[in-house]
């Protein structure tokens, strides 16, 4: 059964780069035709899509974050990575990775989610 | 961007009663070529990731109790819980996946 596990530093300083990984267990990213997405949720607030990477390696980002976001896949480690540059307190959130239920599509209902990792931006 | 607006923001319903949550999109999420509405509903409990309940606006995810149902088309959608159970206390989100992803602001459902 597919499982996703996010990991990364829980505390990042303002203006620095937030780097997270999503380890994929139970499926090989190399042979997968699924896309992978990152979603975040500030404390007590709603969900915000950050971006996605398709099975072909194309990336799609939320326009509000596009200038600061980079998503990549490392097939050797079977993981998906998120980099968010120049962070501020507004980037404090729980960060989730997710996979849509339908392969071969860029966007679809997300049926697999990681447990999420909390990132606080503070000096 | 497609903006998703849910109503109400919070809702208190008695056990066993019906709960109804509405979601409106700023543009249609109905894809004419396959006649599918690219709309999903999620349930989120404290400290947990969202759980997919409904996709294609009205298709129940495997394992989701049949008291949960989704309806609507185009720009107006509804999530209905026919008989509220204590374990249904959560925040509910709608999401469009017609053009990237956007979520509604969430509706907090409580017991009256």
Write a concise keyword list for the protein shown above.
heterodimer; A: 123 residues; mainly beta; seven-stranded mixed beta sheet; four-stranded antiparallel beta sheet; 0% helix; globular; B: 112 residues; 13 strands
Please write out the topology.
The complex is a heterodimer of chains A (123) and B (112).
Chain A: E1 3-7, E2 11-12, E3 18-25, E4 36-41, E5 48-53, E6 59-61, E7 69-74, E8 79-84, E9 93-100, E10 110-113, E11 117-121
Parallel strand pairs in A: 2-11
Antiparallel strand pairs in A: 1-3, 3-8, 4-5, 4-9, 5-6, 7-8, 9-10, 9-11
Chain B: E1 4-7, E2 10-13, E3 19-25, E4 30-31, E5 36-37, E6 39-44, E7 51-55, E8 59-60, E9 68-73, E10 76-81, E11 90-96, E12 102-103, E13 107-111
Parallel strand pairs in B: 2-13
Antiparallel strand pairs in B: 1-3, 3-10, 4-5, 6-7, 6-11, 7-8, 9-10, 11-12, 11-13
What do you see in this structure?
The complex is a heterodimer of chains A (123) and B (112). Chain A is mostly beta strands and 123 residues long. Chain A has no helices and eleven strands. Chain A has strands spanning 3-7, 11-12, 18-25, 36-41, 48-53, 59-61, 69-74, 79-84, 93-100, 110-113, 117-121. In chain A, strand 7 (69-74) and strand 8 form a beta hairpin. The N and C termini of chain A lie far apart (39 Å). With 112 residues, chain B is an all-beta fold. Helices cover 0% and strands 52% of the residues of chain B. Chain B contains no helices and 13 strands. In chain B, the strands form three sheets. In chain B, strands 2, 6, 7, 8, 11, 12 and 13 form a seven-stranded mixed β-sheet that branches. In chain B, strands 1-3-10-9 form a four-stranded antiparallel β-sheet, with no helix packed on it. The interface between A and B is medium-sized, with 23 and 24 residues.
């Amino acid at each position: 059964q597919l499982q996703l596990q996010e990991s990364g530093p829980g505390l990042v300083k303002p203006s620095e780069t937030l780097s997270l990984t999503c380890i994929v267990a139970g499926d090989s990213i190399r042979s997968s035709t699924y896309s992978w997405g990152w979603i975040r949720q500030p404390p007590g607030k709603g969900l915000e899509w950050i971006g996605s990477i398709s099975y072909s390696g194309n990336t799609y980002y939320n326009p509000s974050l596009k200038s600061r976001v980079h998503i990549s896949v490392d097939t050797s480690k079977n993981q998906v990575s998120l980099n968010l540059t120049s962070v501020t307190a507004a980037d404090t959130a729980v960060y989730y990775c997710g996979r849509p239920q339908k392969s071969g599509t860029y966007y679809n209902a997300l049926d697999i989610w990681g447990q999420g990792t909390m990132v606080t931006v503070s000096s | 961007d497609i903006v998703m607006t849910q109503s109400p923001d919070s809702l208190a319903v008695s056990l066993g009663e019906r709960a109804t949550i509405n979601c409106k999109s700023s543009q249609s999420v109905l894809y004419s070529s396959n006649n599918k509405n690219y709309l999903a509903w999620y349930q989120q409990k404290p400290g947990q990731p969202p759980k997919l309940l409904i996709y294609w606006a009205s298709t129940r995810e495997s394992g989701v109790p049949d008291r949960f149902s989704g309806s609507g088309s185009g720009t107006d959608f509804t999530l209905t819980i026919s008989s509220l159970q204590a374990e249904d206390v959560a925040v509910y989100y709608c999401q469009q996946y017609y053009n990237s992803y956007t979520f509604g602001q969430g509706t907090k459902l409580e017991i009256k």
